[in-house]
Amino acid sequence: MITRYERMIASRYLLPGRGEGFIFLVASISLIAVALGVAALIAVMSVMNGFRAELFDRILGLNGHAVIQGYGGQLADWAPLSTEVRKLPGVTKATPLIEQPLMASFDGRVQGILLRGMTIPDLMATKVITSNVKHGTLAGLVPGSNTVAIGARLAEALGAQVGDSISVISPDGQVTPFGAVPRIIAYRIVAIFEVGIYDYDKAFVVMPMANAQTLLRMGDSVGMIEVVTNDPDKVDAILAPIKGRVARSGVIASWRDTNASLFEALVVEKTVMFWVLSIIILVAVFNILSSLIMLVRAKTRDIAILRTMGATRIALMRIFMTVGTLIGGLGILLGLALGFSLLAWRADIVAGVSAVTGAQLWDPSVRFLTELPSKTDPAQVVGIVVLTLLMSFLATLFPAWKAASTDPVTVLRYE
Q1: Exposed/middle/buried for residue 121 (C-beta within 10 Å: 0-12, 13-18, 19+)
Q2: CA of 44: how far to CAs of 49, 342, 381, in Å?
Q3: pLDDT at residue 225 above 90?
């Protein structure tokens, strides 16, 4: 433990003495560098965590943890199969779906869409859609009424609003002597939703299951069964018992199969960003090292006097180790405050920088999400603090050892 007089001397050495302004400047730069490194790490790691969590929740909220896709895009025996799937331990939901890429037009504009047919109870249970309705109401989706709900970005691209009728174009139409004629049916928009993922908001058109079956001439068949489990990481093991049963009519694709490259890229990017930003802290630690070396040289006479007054080598080491660790600790506190402030005002900061530079820093068409997300992991914050403290402490060892090695006889010989 550090004694009272050692704390007093360490606190005196933190403030500049006569002719020590440059040393104080270097120490201040070290403190600010530590703060910037900690703030950058906390902000970037939180944004990366939030990005992954938002993508995971929204993508899996729409697509489930796995899908059982029928051969040729149709599952004729979906009802008994979905019953078997629901009985599997670990399965919480098995939802029949129809998904088909088609075209939609309105007022001369044409866009590619992803048609999704769902039963009304299943649609109302999909919180990603029901909790993000921006205009209109999903209550207007009634089987047989030719009504749809569409994504917000698709509505913008088509220039359509609630109450307008869009034409959905299916290539599977009637065959005439002159060739196949596309099937075109008008549907009235009753709701516009925004789930927050640009690609989905730009393409999704949701309608009742019966309407989708009629449009695509599927009879009583569905396209797939969406499966939700209580543990996404164990989805393959949970669905393993029905692989043989499914193989006769379709295939099983888990979220890893469909989004593996995206989530693996996020993990790699997060790891690389952590180590790259850690270089800022490493530079700050070298500044602490250099400032302590200069402080030891400047205090050589004081160190010799302390030695002659009875101060031990260990006491001198503790004094300079305390000085360096305090610089790192103060930098960490400042960095925590700065990092959490950046996260709290991240949307305003992005908007302000975009307005000043004229560049769109957060383009939803590139970033998938419409807003900059954030999710702070307390364990990561503790790890960043511990890492920075440890590096600051290690930087004090050499200067402290040099101070403790000072020979008072040599220093005071000509005093």
Answers
A1: exposed
A2: 9, 10, 11
A3: no
